[in-house]
Amino acid sequence: MSTAITEAITTLAEAQRRFNLLPTEDEAFFSEWQMGLPKLSTAEQIALDELRRRYLYQRSQQHLLEGTVTLLLASPLLTIAGFYDPPFKVRAEESVQLRLDDGEEILQGRMDVLILLNQFWVVVLESKKTALSVWAALPQTLAYLMANPQPEQPSFGMVTNGDDILFVKLVQKLQRNYGLSRVFAPFTSSRELYSALQILKRIGQVIGDGVG
C-alpha cells in the first residue's frame, strides 16, 4: 500500500513512532551547526545583505507562498553556498519512496530541493509558506531524510518559511537519532542569515570529507 508522506506523517510524535526515531540534545551529535564554521568573505556578506533586503521588501507587502519563499530566500542561499556549482548537483521536486519497517506500507513524497555530491545526499531543503511555522514541516522532513539511499551517512535538512530557518541532522547507524539546531531568524537580523550560510557551507565540507 502506498501513502503520501504528507498524509501519513503529520506530527512529530508520529514520525518518531513510525520510524523508531529518537531525538537527542547531545551537542556532540549535531556539532556542525556550532563548530568548525567557515568564515564568510566580504562578498558573501554583501550578497546576503542584498538577498535579505529583497526578501524583507516582498515580505513587508504580504504573506509569501512556499514557492515564493524558495525563489526569494532558499534558492539564493543555496547559490551563495556554492551548491549550484561543481562538484555539487541539484534536483528539484525529487521523488522519494520509503518502505516502513513492517514492510507493508510504502510512503511517497517529493522533496523541494535535494543537493547531491557524487550521488551522496548533502542537504534536503523543505520550504513552507510564511503563514506556517517551520515546525510544521519537521515531521515530513524527517521522513525525507529517512529515505537517504546511503543510511550509513548522516543526513542533513534545512527547513524554512522565510522568516525562520531550522537545520536537522539524522543518523541511522546503531540507532536512529535526530538533532536540531536553534531556529535562525533572518527576518530579524542579517547575522542570522550569515550563520545559516556558514552552516550550509560546513555541511558541504562534512559530506565532502566523508565521501572524498
Account of the protein in words:
The protein is an alpha/beta fold and 212 residues long. The protein has a single domain (2-211), classed as tt1808, chain A. 37% of the residues lie in helices and 25% in strands. The chain is built from 6 helices and 8 strands. It has helices at 5-8, 12-19, 42-61, 66-80, 138-146, 190-211; strands at 2-4, 22-23, 88-99, 106-117, 120-127, 155-160, 165-171, 177-180. Strands 1, 2, 3, 4, 5, 6, 7 and 8 form an 8-stranded mixed β-sheet that branches. A hairpin with a 4-residue loop joins β6 and β7. α2 (12-19) packs parallel to α5 and α3 (42-61) packs antiparallel against α4 (66-80). The N and C termini lie far apart (38 Å).
In summary, what is this structure?
With 212 residues, this protein is α/β, with parallel strands linked by helices. The chain has a single domain, classed as tt1808, chain A.
Which keywords apply here?
212 residues, alpha/beta, tt1808, chain A, eight-stranded mixed sheet, 6 helices, 8 strands, 25% strand, globular
